[in-house]
Design goal:
single chain, 268 residues, 4-stranded antiparallel sheet, 18 strands
């Protein structure tokens, strides 16, 4: 059962294309129309992930340019729980529709597991012709949270990039969602950072008012206020806000799903 499907927004990039032995007039005529999709699903024993790349390139090869031998190759990055990586599809002529899916699976786990996805298309004439930025979220499943029926919980903390001035207070967000979230009765969350010289966490995480954060909710949301110091050789320019989740499905002492989700930060 699909528990998460999203389409990363299409990035249109025009690259110079030089035909073999050709001069000016053979560049900038190809336009990509590609998308990258990723899915997560589960059953009682396994978590499945897939990343797909599909689409086509439009354009009219200028007269006198050597275009007939140019091919495009789809590549999809699927890394879940340390398993997987890049996979490549079949090369096709530049003006053909292409599609490729990279699928992986890991054993079902109550510990939040990272899933990173991205995609690109490689052109024999110009190299990387289309690409999306990598996206990472964390998933887990537990019988008490609907795991026997293929339900799962997904945590997402989008990367942060802000001006590092040491005074401005920003808010980072994290959310808990997907099909198993309706079983959740309580969530305990704390935050730390792996770069205390750069990132100053102001107070602790608080409920984001856009979510109800109550049993039966489809999404639970949190905010963490922070400041970023002026970077130097000691602080560096990057770090992580580390969200430590304890997720309960029912009344008990120990969490059903747990783990740490690092949220990357970089100075603008």
């Amino acid at each position: 059962m699909k528990s998460r499907i999203f389409c990363l927004q299409m990035i249109l990039c025009l690259f110079a294309f030089l035909g073999s032995g050709q001069g000016q007039g053979c560049g900038g005529w190809m336009t990509p129309h590609y998308s990258v999709y990723s899915t997560l699903s589960a059953n009682s024993t396994t978590i499945y992930s897939s990343v797909s790349v599909d689409g086509y390139t439009s354009g009219v090869c200028p007269i006198g340019c050597a275009c007939s031998g140019v091919t495009h190759t789809p590549s999809a990055y699927n890394l879940i729980g340390g398993t997987g990586g890049w996979g490549n599809g079949t090369s096709v002529p530049w003006n053909y529709y292409l599609t490729y899916t990279n699928s992986k699976s890991i054993a079902a786990s109550s510990v939040l597991q990272p899933f990173t996805s991205s995609g690109k298309v490689i052109c024999t004439a110009v190299g990387t012709f289309f690409a999306t930025a990598a996206s990472t979220d964390y998933s887990a499943t537990n019988p008490n949270c609907g795991g026997t029926n293929g339900q799962m919980v997904i945590v997402y903390a989008p990367p942060q990039s802000q001006r590092c001035d040491g005074t401005t207070t920003y808010k980072a967000g994290a959310s808990v969602g997907s099909s198993g979230t309706t079983y959740v009765t309580e969530i305990g969350v704390t935050t730390t950072t792996d770069n205390t010289l750069l990132l100053d966490l102001v107070g602790g995480p608080a409920a984001d008012p856009v979510c109800t954060n109550k049993p039966g909710s489809s999404t639970w949301c949190y905010q963490q206020s922070y400041k970023a110091a002026v970077p130097n050789s000691s602080t560096g320019r990057t770090g992580n806000i580390k969200w430590n989740f304890n997720i309960f499905c029912g009344t008990k002492l120990n969490p059903d799903i747990y783990g740490t989700v690092p949220q990357p930060f970089s100075c603008q």
